[in-house]
Specification:
Elements: H1 2-6, H2 21-31, E1 33-38, E2 41-48, H3 68-73, E3 83-91, E4 94-98, E5 106-112, E6 115-128, H4 136-139, E7 151-159, E8 167-170, E9 175-178, E10 187-191, E11 196-199, E12 204-209, E13 214-219, H5 228-238
Antiparallel strand pairs: 1-13, 2-3, 2-12, 4-6, 4-10, 5-6, 5-9, 6-7, 7-8, 9-12, 10-11
Length: 256
C-alpha cells in the first residue's frame, strides 16, 4: 500500500520520490501528513429496454417512435421502465463518450438533473474531475482546475459548432449523456480510459459525485500552503507560462 502511494502512475499525483522514502517516512511519522480527499465520479450505464411492439395509429402513421429527451425528462406512464442499469464504475480522472471506431461524428444528448442541456454533434464529450483536469480534459481544450474544487468539467472533443465551449458545473448535478434513438451510429463510453462500453441508440450513462473520494497523501505543509505541490507540478510538468526570455524594458523609461 505504501508503494502505491509512493509510485502512483499519474505525474500530478506523484508527491514523493521513492529514492527518498526513508526521509519521507521519517517525516510522516514525526510531523504527520496531509490527506486531501479528491472527488471521484460514479458512472452507470443505462440500457434501453426495447418495446415489444409498435402500434399503428388511426391516421396510418406509426405511433410509439421513441424520443430520448421525452423519456428522460418526461413523466413515466403507468410505472413504465424505459431503461435498466448495466454496470457501474468509479472514475478518478474522466468519463468520455466518443464516436469510437465509427467514421462519423457522435450525436449526443446531455442532461443535467431534470433539464435537457443541449444536443451535441462532436467526436465526443469529456466529463472530468478536478484531478483529471490536467489529463484528457486539458488536451481537449478544457480548463485547469485546482483539485479541491467540488466541480465537474464538461469539455467537447472536436465539436461540430464552435459555440459549444467548455463548461464547469457543480458536483451536486447528476449528468446524463445519451445516444438518441435516431442516431446514425453507436457511441462508446470509457472510464478513466480503462474500460470501453458501447452505447447503442437509446442508451445513456449517468455521472454523479461518488460517495467514495480518493484519499491523496501529501507531505505535511504549514497552514495556508496546501496548494504549493499542485502549483509546482503545473509549473514543472507543463512549463506553465515559461518563455525563452523575459520581455526587455523599453529604453528611455528607466528614469521616468
Amino acid at each position: 500500500r505504501r508503494c502505491c502511494l509512493l509510485r502512483w502512475e499519474s505525474g500530478f499525483l506523484t508527491k514523493f520520490d521513492f529514492e527518498d522514502h526513508e526521509e519521507i517516512l521519517g517525516g510522516a511519522f514525526g510531523e504527520g501528513v496531509t490527506v486531501s480527499l479528491r472527488l471521484r465520479f460514479e458512472g452507470t450505464v443505462m440500457r434501453s429496454i426495447p418495446r415489444r411492439q409498435i402500434t399503428e395509429g388511426e391516421d396510418g402513421e406509426e405511433e410509439g417512435e421513441r424520443d430520448l429527451v421525452e423519456e428522460l425528462i418526461g413523466e413515466e406512464k403507468d410505472d413504465e421502465r424505459t431503461h435498466r442499469p448495466d454496470g457501474t464504475w468509479e472514475v478518478l480522472n474522466e468519463l468520455v463518450v466518443d464516436r469510437g471506431p465509427n467514421p462519423t461524428m457522435s450525436n449526443i444528448e446531455i442532461f443535467g438533473d431534470d433539464e435537457h442541456f443541449t444536443s451535441v454533434s462532436a467526436d465526443g464529450v469529456c466529463v472530468s474531475t478536478p484531478t483529471g483536469s490536467t489529463a484528457y480534459n486539458l488536451a481537449a481544450g478544457g480548463s485547469l482546475c485546482h483539485p479541491e474544487n467540488p466541480v465537474m468539467l464538461v469539455t467537447p472533443i472536436c465539436a461540430h459548432t464552435l459555440s459549444f465551449r467548455p463548461i464547469i458545473l457543480p458536483d451536486t448535478i447528476v449528468l446524463r449523456i445519451g445516444v438518441p434513438f435516431d442516431a446514425r451510429t453507436s457511441s462508446w463510453a470509457s472510464f478513466d480510459g480503462r474500460e470501453r462500453v458501447e452505447l447503442r441508440p437509446g442508451d445513456y450513462v449517468t455521472i454523479s459525485a461518488s460517495r467514495f473520494p480518493f484519499a491523496c497523501v501529501q507531505p505535511h505543509r504549514p497552514h495556508g500552503r496546501r496548494s504549493g505541490d499542485w502549483i509546482n507540478s503545473i509549473s514543472a510538468k507543463l512549463g506553465w507560462n515559461t518563455r525563452q526570455a523575459r520581455q526587455k524594458p523599453m529604453k528611455g523609461w528607466e528614469g521616468s
